[in-house]
Amino acid sequence: MSLETETKRRRTFAIISHPDAGKTTLTEKLLLFSGAIQIAGAVKGRKASRHATSDWMEIEKQRGISVASSVMQMSYRDHVVNLLDTPGHKDFSEDTYRVLTAVDSALMVIDAANGVESQTRRLIEVCRQRDTPIITFVNKMDREVRDPLDILDEVERELGMPCCPITWPVGQGKSFGGIINLRTQSMTVFAPGSEKRPQDFEVIPLTEADKLRARFGQAFDDAMESMELAVGASTAWDHDAFLAAKLTPVFFGSGVNNFGVMEVLDAVVDMSPSPGPRVSTVLVNKQPVQKEVKPSDLGFAGVVFKVQANMDANHRDRIAFVRVASGKYEPGMKMKVQRTGKELRPTSVVTFMSQRREAVEEAYAGDIIGFTTHGGVQLGDTITDGANLQFTGLPFFAPEMFATVVLKNPLRTKQLQQGLMQLGEEGAIQVFKPDAGGNMLLGAVGQLQFEVVQHRLKTEYDAEVRLESSQYTSARWITAETPEALREFETTYPLRMAHDAANALAYMCTSPYDVRLAQERFPKIQFHPLREHA
Ligand code: G4P
């Protein structure tokens, strides 16, 4: 098959939701229906550690399991579907945001009783920033939940885009009768049970309204009425608007009962986009110039959006998750890390098949492959088979909390440095080295990150540290209009300057007013709350 055909049949999407909305359940059912797994329960294993807050052994476990299950590839209707999980714990949200840079669309799962919840909101923001098309699945219709019109209204408000219902519920909770498919003008009848397959559900055309009324009574009439209201109030289906993230198709169902799930899987294939072009920078006469990389471009190119340490503490190898942007990966191919110009010599290259890893035979744009390496690869790195280009857009967020690292045994300095460098490269934590010297600073978005890093420094690098509170509350990456302006700024605040793991310059803040004051004083300096790997 040609490059073009291969990429056209790929769908790469992330599932986003607030914890407990039913993401794990839905993921499992999607895998089940596509034939990627045979038995239910396979994905559930990692659920046990979901609620862990500060028990790091649990986190370790979660980390290990998520290597295998955070990316899942399945084939369905002659398509290759790549599903990316987004870690649920709020303290790992940075990781989640980066996962969203590797997908072409998102599936938002919401609990019909709770609507759009806090953690979904932040993820939506990232999708909106990137104009990622979103499919909405309203789950748990078998429970006593909110009125569907109410839910649509909330989704519209939260997403800031109109909804277009594709299925519509008849009743809810005990009286949940099923869903009306607006496209086929038929009703699929609900039957509880986790063993059901899509073909097991009875389908009755709406033309047999008398039969439906006799069977579902008032719930059917009410559903027809509210459906008409919803259709009247919402925009007609417009595929281009969906692709431009200006409209979301909405599905109703019950994941745990396998109900309404097939419709979502079909929507991923029928509606979601195949991989599109990605922006990169190339150097032309030493000047950065933007260049679009198309999926069907012959040269292989990909970007590292996640780096994960392996579980085996005796082997310091790590997996770099690469989203392929163009060309074709083949085993034995020579690859280069653009940042360093060095050849990448992975010990193995794997693909992720639900619960297991397999050696990659070939991969195309949209696919996620994992390079097992001993280092030399960082988050945001671009990997190509030779072309000189660098993808942009992998976000790093300014930390919201800081700690100073104090090594308990000074003889372990080398191990500490190596550990911090590697954990920083992985994105487990942000590491800042003060320009004026002194202890290293750790920056995090969530408290849990500190605990994990402290634990990992001890177990993986044999470097025991104490984390002390720091006067800093935030940081801003800085750039300047001119080198002179930058120099002036640096000499004014020598004690506030630090460099992060990617050697980017940052200004450390002690209060929210800091930035404003500094900005007023130095209008030629730009303060960035977000650093995009460039
Ligand atoms: P998450 O990954 O988004 O955190 O959610 P998960 O799938 O683990 O689901 C959270 C809970 O909601 C689970 O119950 C799950 O069984 C239940 N659930 C998922 N989909 C539906 C649905 O359509 N209807 C109903 N009624 N419940 C649903 P749990 O009690 O936490 O776990 P379990 O013991 O049932 O596995």
TrEMBL record:
Question: Which subcellular locations apply to this protein?
Answer: Cytoplasm
Q: Where does GTP bind?
A: 17-24, 85-89, 139-142
InterPro entries this protein is in?
EF-G-like_DII (IPR053905), EFG_III/V (IPR035647), G_TR_CS (IPR031157), P-loop_NTPase (IPR027417), PrfC (IPR004548), RF3_C (IPR032090), RF3_dom_3_sf (IPR038467), RF3_GTP-bd (IPR041732)
Q: Which domain of life is it from?
A: Bacteria
Cited Gene3D superfamilies? P-loop containing nucleotide triphosphate hydrolases, Peptide chain release factor 3, domain III, Translation factors
Query: What one GO molecular function would you report for this record?
Result: translation release factor activity, codon nonspecific
Tell me any Pfam family this protein matches: EF-G_D2
Keywords in alphabetical order, please. Answer: Cytoplasm, GTP-binding, Nucleotide-binding, Protein biosynthesis
Q: Does the keyword Nucleotide-binding apply?
A: yes
Q: Which GO terms describe its cellular component?
A: cytosol
> Function, please?
Increases the formation of ribosomal termination complexes and stimulates activities of RF-1 and RF-2. It binds guanine nucleotides and has strong preference for UGA stop codons. It may interact directly with the ribosome. The stimulation of RF-1 and RF-2 is significantly reduced by GTP and GDP, but not by GMP.
Similarity annotation: Belongs to the TRAFAC class translation factor GTPase superfamily. Classic translation factor GTPase family. PrfC subfamily.
Protein name, UniProt field: Peptide chain release factor 3
Gene of this entry: prfC
